[in-house]
Amino acid sequence: NQELEEALIGNILANNMNLLKSPNLEAKHFYFTDYKLIFEEAIKRIGAGEVVDFRIITTFLKNNNIETSIIKDLMKATAGICDMDSYSNEIIRLWQIRELKNILNLIINENISDFDAIKTKLEGEIADISINMSKQPKKIDKIIDDVLSVHQKELVFTGFEKLDILTGGFELGNLVIVGGRPSSGKTTFCLNFAKNVSLNHGVLFFSMEVSDKSLARKFLNETTGVSAYRLKIGAISEGDTMALENNRHTWKNYNLIIDQENGINLLTIRSKIKRALLKTDIKMVCIDYLQLIASSGKEYSREQQISRISEGLKKIAKDFNIVVVALSQLSRAGDSRENKRPILSDLRDSGAIEQNADIVMFTHREEYFLEREKVPEHSKHYEDWLKCYNNVKGLADIIVSKNREGECGDIKFRFNGKQSQFLEVKNDSY
Fold this sequence. Notes:
Layout: H1 2-14, H2 33-47, H3 54-63, H4 70-76, H5 84-109, H6 115-129, H7 140-148, E1 155-156, H8 161-167, E2 170-171, E3 175-180, H9 186-197, E4 202-207, H10 212-224, H11 228-233, H12 238-247, E5 256-259, H13 266-279, E6 282-288, H14 302-320, E7 323-329, H15 352-356, E8 359-364, H16 366-372, H17 382-392, E9 395-403, E10 409-416, E11 421-424
Parallel strand pairs: 3-7, 3-8, 4-5, 4-6, 6-7
Antiparallel strand pairs: 1-2, 8-9, 9-10, 10-11
């Protein structure tokens, strides 16, 4: 739309402050080459603190052997009323349509016959041309107004009272990391609070390691007490059947969506979130677990791949204004320490996980480590081992090691593995 491009550039040259009303606009969004060059030059000079007017741009055009007659068109375009915000959004929309047509033509010309390959390529290319028009710079007074008007719907609470008090709740846009060694209970812990959250908000749970049926059995195990193992083999008792029937009416109350596709990448996760948001009000996305997300950059080292993935998850949280909870494996470094409590440097494969996260917490069970260090009953150390083991059996700590806008600390829990359940300890000691 030549008139739109003329009006927008003309009004920027007439008053450079108008540029602030088009924060998402870039030179590449213009269709006409001359206007693209003028906008690029104006942006560069204004950014350097210069005042750019029609005279300056006329000199620029002459120096680059570009016909200066277009200056008259630009000056005429300033005569009418120009809605800079609407005009720039329309120019961007037209650019997106042109880019999308180019993408579709490329896919057709490449003769890709595999649906998944077409889908992945299309999702990736579309993500590159997607622009969130609402994420515009704001003056501090406007941001302060937003801060002071925040109420509880802007926060997501886990349903664990002490944990929610310590963290202040998860803020929309947060990336939360839950780390733990294998069998430390991190999946169970995440499923527990995802269940609590899903009573008030939509929760999308990506399970790349555990099947959806296994998660459903854990869910039933926690809510009804029926053994997940008996559910698995189909050997439920009359009492189990009664417990299931008594709770059947409550399952629809949980807005918990399970996605068990393996090997998905960030682009697929984005696409699935978009589709889920069309159907329900998703406020939390859980990913079990971060290291299983496929990387599109095969040329990078594993550390760089995980860094890109954690950055991508943080961007997803901000772009969709949701809480992203990503489970993360820990390195074996803690196994060789006398004190097995996990620390931030134990996060596996990349320090960028800690850097990008707003909150980092760990599941820790001394019982898990003592079970692995069990000594023979005839050993002289057996009684000491048994005493230590009995002191920590069925106990767990949730260790909040990073909290960008709050305190860190430990929350004491009882862990019931047979019922897939973490329960907060109400008093100060176990």
